[in-house]
Each structure stands twice: as structure tokens, then as C-alpha cells.
Amino acid sequence: MQYRACSLCIIKKGESILLEQFPEEDGIITFRPVGGTIEYGEDSKSAVIREAKEEISIDIIEPKLIGIIEHIFHCYGELGHEFDFIYEAKFSLMEDYNKSEIKGIEGNKNFIVVWKNINDFEESNRYKLVPDGLYEMLTSRNTSDIKHISTKDLLAFEGT
């Protein structure tokens, strides 16, 4: 398996966040923010905007990078290694916050996206939030500024 870079989107509504819900497996339901692979030559911010539009047909605004998770994991007997750019954003339309469930699509696979209270993942044997470390990132009171430099932005600046 090769390295993979992903952009994932955190959208908040009160104490809840919008998450893709995976089918139950061994008594555990896994949840993950909307998002996906950053395409070659694409920056992570553009990717999170594109992925939200492609997967759930909703426009997001004001994406802000809140962290990066280097996620090393085992999946079906293989080692996986992802760099997950975690963005917090808002829906462009307030009415989208009223939806209790949103239908999503990834390629030819349908899925649902639901609002899930972040506290449901605290020491839970029933629910799992991925990537690993995301719960800790979202609930940590220790915040730090993230410096995000994209050479794509630097090249655009030099061209002006």
C-alpha cells in the first residue's frame, strides 16, 4: 500500500458533528467525517470543498485547517498510512443544518451521513470515530496555531 493524503471535513451543530456512518461490524459502528483522497496536484483545502460537494451534494464555506493526523493502521491484513488534513467548515445554506440524515455517494457506493454527539465516542465500546486520534483532537482544550504553507499558494503569489 502507498501513502495516501486525505482531506476530511468537520461540520458542527451544537455538540454534534456530521459523520458518515459505516455498517455495524462485530458490534461496533464506525463513523468518519465526510471527505476523501486529495487528487494529485490538488491542495487539501480545494479537496475538502470538492469532496463535500461530490459526496453529499452540499456546498461548504470557510474551511479552516484545525489539524493533521498521521494515521498508520492495519486494514484487511495490510498496513495503511494516511495523512489526514482535518478541516472545520460550515454549510453555505443554513437549511442544510435541519437535515437529520443526508444521503451520500462515493463512486457507486451509497451511504448515510448523520449528526452524532461527540460525547458518544468517549470510552464507547459501541461507536468508533476514525481516523484514530480525531476524538482527542476535537475534545482537547490544548489548542495551537497550525501553520499551513502550500507551495501552490506561494507560486500564485510570486506570479502577481
From TrEMBL:
Could you tell me which residue ranges the Nudix hydrolase domain spans? 1-135
Keyword Signal assigned to the entry: answer is: no
- Enumerate the UniProt keywords alphabetically: Hydrolase
Family matches, as Pfam families:
NUDIX (PF00293)
CDD domains linked: NUDIX_Hydrolase (cd04688)
Q: GO molecular-function annotation terms?
A: hydrolase activity
Q: Which InterPro entries match?
A: NUDIX_hydrolase-like_dom_sf (IPR015797), NUDIX_hydrolase_dom (IPR000086)
Query: This protein's superkingdom?
Result: Bacteria
The yes or no answer to whether the keyword DNA damage is present is no
Q: What is this protein called?
A: NUDIX hydrolase
Q: Which organism is it from?
A: Paenibacillus glycanilyticus
